[in-house]
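Have a think about this chain, tokens included, and walk me through the fold.
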Amino acid sequence: MAPGGRDPKTLVPGDVDTTKPQPVVQFSKIPEVAQAQFVKLATKVDSIDKASLAEATTGARLFYTDTPRFRSTDGRPVRLTYAVVTEGGTARSQPSNLAIIVPLPVALPPAGLSAAPKAEGVVLSWTAPDKSVTGDVAPIVVGYNIYRSAPGATVGDLATPTNTAPIKGTTYTDAPEYGEHEYRVAAVAAAGPPSLQSDYSAPVKVTFRDLVPPPTPASITPLIETKAVRLIWDPVEATDLAGYRLYRAEGVGHENNIREIGTVPLVAQPVTIPDYVDKGPDPGIAYKYAVTAVDKNGNESAKVWTGWVVVPKTP
């Protein structure tokens, strides 16, 4: 029984839970069509003539799209059997192997796909479709497939999704290589095999770059010198480290009652060694200092601060 659906054994003609996918077990007592019987009962759907072969060919395979009835007149699922024959001027081949399917009301493509680069990856979100391609039956959606490609690239019908199993819900975080990417999403009606899904959504482009800051320096130590404060801190290990930024906060008050009144950067460009001398503090004023690590993409770590320090006035 489909989870949340009705037991197919209790169904009678005209009594179908059309909101849930019905298992193929409904057809277990109906024998598959033998090839000889198929030849007698089959109806020709269409033909692809020689002039149209190129349009119907992808790689080494031919493709054809049929638009059959998804339900019987009394609302029950139908089982369809397909075969292909080769026709010549005066003769035709025997049918190919028989392909048996139970059509499902596949959803229209998901709408509203968006892609936002975050530190953890590209965060995708979209709107669940509420209509099927038939328009008269609620869509069956068991999950979603995500497709990533280079911007402007063609994504064929046999493309491999980025995810390994259908995504539950309407969000997904992908972790691609840094660069420009294009995404599409499709609603899955049956995971397969064979799989069955909607057409692709409209594509969305995104540029994914390094958004992860380097580690924060472990500590920073102020050393009071004549009319200056020397700062030393623990170096950071990061392959893309560009250097360090330094900040100074000024305070008013005395001892344990100092109140911060503002913070300013001390350097216009990152310094590359864990040592810096602030030659501009006013004697008798309380200051505290911070250092951050910054990488080559401009990502900056959190600040680590000193305590309050005061450069003494010259006697």
